[in-house]
Amino acid sequence: MAEKVNLYEVDATGVNLRKLCGGGINNLSMESCVAAAILPGNPDAVTIGDSKLGADTPTLRFTRQELNNFFAAYQAGEIS
């Protein structure tokens, strides 16, 4: 079994978060956006922040599997 890495210990200095948008908010014309990037040295880990806050945004970090589990739960109606 591979050793679990604490994603918050990975140095993300200088990571360029890319703004990703899609979908509306409550059927309005506004798009919902996040800022995301792959963590350096770990292609299986993603850092996500608030696109409206720019470079000063606090970030959350997830493995791709954690994100896949989240999306699957959302699509199954387990998260509303």
Structure description:
It is a single chain. The protein has one helix at residues 64-75, and strands at 18-24, 31-39, 42-49, 59-63. It is of the alpha+beta class and 80 residues long. It has one domain (7-75). A four-stranded antiparallel sheet has the order 1-2-3-4. The longest helix is centred in the C-terminal third of the chain and has 12 residues, at 64-75. It starts with 17 loop residues before the first strand and ends in a 5-residue tail after the last helix. The relative contact order is 0.19.
Give the total of domains: 1
Record the strand order, biggest sheet.
Answer: 1-2-3-4
Bulk shape: flat
Largest sheet: 4 strands, antiparallel
- Ends distance: 34 Å
Overall average pLDDT: 86
Order of helices and strands: EEEEH
Number of strands: 4
Work out the radius of gyration: 14 Å
Low-pLDDT windows of residues? none
In percent, how much strand structure appears in the residues? 35-45%
Structural class, judged by helices and strands? Answer: alpha+beta
The percent of residues in helical segments reads 10-25%
